[in-house]
Predict the structure.
Amino acid sequence: MPSLRTSYEVGLDFLEFLGQRISKTDRNELQDIYNFEFKRDGSREPKFSNVISALSCFNKASIRPGKVIFHWKPKVRVYYCDQWKSFTQQKTSTSAPASSSPKPVLTPKRKLASEILNKLRVKRAELIKDKGGVEITSDPNATKGKVTFIIKEQGKLFVVKFHIVNRGENCVYFTYYTALHKMRCFTLIDERRVNRVSPLLLCPGESYAVEVHYKVHHHGHFPATMYFEFCPEADPPGSAKPFCVVRELEAVVQTGLAETLGPESPYNPKKNRRLRPEKRIVEEGVPPESSITHTLRIMAKLNQYKYPFYLKELAKHKLEDSERLSPPARQQLPRVRRVLDSQLCMNNYTERFHLLLHLEEIQMEVDIKKYDLYGKTMTLDKSNKKLLILKVPGVAENRPSVLRGDKLNVCLSEDRSQPITVYEGYVHRVELDRVKLGFSKKLLQKFVSNMKFDVEFNINRFPIRLQHRAVELAGQHGLGDVLFPSDKDTGHTALPHLSMFNKDLENNPEQKAAVQHIVSGTSKPAPYLIFGPPGTGKTVTVVEAIKQVNKSKATTHILACAPSNSACDLLCERLLGYVDGHRLYRLCAPSRDPRTLPQKLLKHSNWNEAEDSFLLPSIQALMDYSVIVVTLVTAGRLVTGGVGKGHFTHIFIDEAGQAMEPECIIGIAGLLDPEKGQLVLAGDPKQLGPILRSPLAQLHGMGQSLLERLMKQNPLYQKSQDGHSGFDTRFVTKLLRNYRSHPAILMIPNELFYENELQVFANEMEREAFCRWEHLLKKGFPVVFHGVMGKDEREANSPSFFNVTEIEVIVSYLNKIIQTQGKKGLPKLSTSDIGIITPYRKQVEKIRKALNTVAELNKWKDIKVGSVEEFQGQERKVIIVSTVRSSVNYVKMDQDFNIGFLSNEKRFNVAMTRAKALLIVVGNPVILSKDPTWQRFIRYCELEQGYTGFDYKDAEGEEDVVSRLASLKISSDDIDESPLQQHMHPEWRSEQ
């Protein structure tokens, strides 16, 4: 608390500063002038209320409700008032009546900040240049107008000294200086308290010092933009034009780990990508399956469904008219726009999805080129001299997806004259980061060690072709009442009494009701939906329903699908022991790596040891099974093999919210009898949907799953409007009991996405496991938001972002968790109990590098670090979330392309609902608070005393971070990848 005398002296300075505006009486207006124009920093000057009270004590002011009346005559500095006329474009008349309030002469601080920061983007060189005879140097030195310094020790004072020297031949007034955006971590100091009312005259050769004192208590990047204002001495006064010089500051508070993780080389988005040769002679390779015969015969044709060339041209122009369009493309544009802009219905179903699938494929072709390799060597496979081995980094993570039977193209790196000979290589085997390829004899005869090749990757068109066929079959097989259902044929039937296999369901009314409705078929022909919010036992319900349906009639045949192999394996494992082992079948694609299938499922699958492959059995063999578990894509092989419409009485699709609608249709069209069959979809439309690469396909609804479309657009699946709050349980059940999370973790997602209907049923001992952790900010509240002022960085050719400050904080929390685990009542942890979620691929890489670098974490390096997509459907005792974003410049880009956490509610929801007992979120509160969802979460943490780290109230608002990367322009035009591929780098789906 400042002394009365200090407040009074500051008050006298303020009265002098007001000048002609001393006649103002509105308290709020005066407070704004004090805070935004007069104050230099938040910590040094007293509060406005203290200053006014002190002036009142010394009879220099009177206080009235909402008003302040000053008893003071300003000292008139005529040169000052005239001088600023030209700057402010004000024409105030000297003969104006005394009663009229003159317009403010001074530029308000915020307006000034906005103007200068905007100019920094386009005229940075001009603003940082010394001019008017004034030279500004600093200690530490500035490089290109920016002073960057590293502070190794938190809380230690660091001083930046600016030396202002008049090197010219005439006198110059130093009129004003300020930090355009500021935080409490620094203070501005100068001996004479220079301001526009009390400028300092600098004669030739004279100098003056201004100091910026930094005292930072957190790791991070703390920027400031210093603005110095001058005006030449002139006769007559006011005839000279003022000018400014700008210097940028950035204090970096970091440990040695941050230096290790920093950019390995400067970011340069332009890769030395080569155009793929157009004129080529293709030498066919040798496929792996030449010796293997599948007994499943091809009964239904699968066409190629190639996209028309005009659509590629239209996609390039974002489906907008352009003079550069060719006549055929321009002719087709109105039809394409009409189909895509119209409401989806059965009449346009096939045509619309054909177009959307084509647009997605066009973008996939662009994105796959990212993985092309140049100047790579191959080696001869010692166990099979007919195969060559190529190293493919990232293949183990499906970046890109390379499967047995896929084709890669290679050509000799030195071959430059077209037509170029391109050798097709069939993938025979995938092993971690290498693939074994079968080429023609021509290449094998030519091959020598150290021969260099350029490699082209291709998308696998098989899943796309199956989706095209499925949307065609949907029309041909009359699925209108399934895809656009109504309740015209649905009555109310008595629910059967069932004895549950899983006794826990007896006590869960929602799960039990869902199973009863599915068994009785109340919704037919409409699909039955299980709306399963996080941790509510959606898959448990699906499994119970399959068991009950299988038990109900001997004639039932069930197809159980999911978008991914892992989800299908889980379904199958949970059915083991309840469905006769000879009647349960896990059908895998021939391309699947057998090592990824759980050992106990091998004997229930189509694995053939003798052929070392998954074989497709005959249709007769398949139709003998009661329950077949298969990915949506592989379900298309059943259609191809001729499994008839209506053979499956029930089709279940788990994780249905993660599949594109045409992908869902693969498992339905041609297999489901639209009148007698029962379709069950389980998922959560509030969690992440399918990943699309094409923004045009996303824009026109392809990112919406069948499950989400039905829940959003069909009245059967919406809450009734007749005063009853619930869903119609004949068609949909919303599961309400959460068996995963502590109530504090569940609170915000429940409020924002699930209408506060979720109930906490998690095991008390598990959910309370960290409630007494010594590093919690508030005992009993296992949620932490750690505010960090980090910096978005990129390196080399990778456009993905990382933030080393956030990684430093994550490492400190990991150390605390590991040091305390198993002590004072805390659970003993393994690597599988902790997960780290972050939206950018480069941040994943850097966190993994940190886990391998920090000695104390050596035993914990196998902790899963991944994107939100990789954690969907999973849970951990402890979840740490790194949000990465620290620059408003990039936020707009994230919003435009729906990447990152900001403005993507589904991504937020999934990330926040994975933790059972402890959730730690690390991020920049200033940036995140611009999004209402994040603002609510941060506010919640504050109210519950779960907020720590940088206090974002120390930052003034929008301007404090705008200049962080002000000179950087965002453009993806020069990069041959979609923004999704650039920043998110999603894995390529490998299910077939």
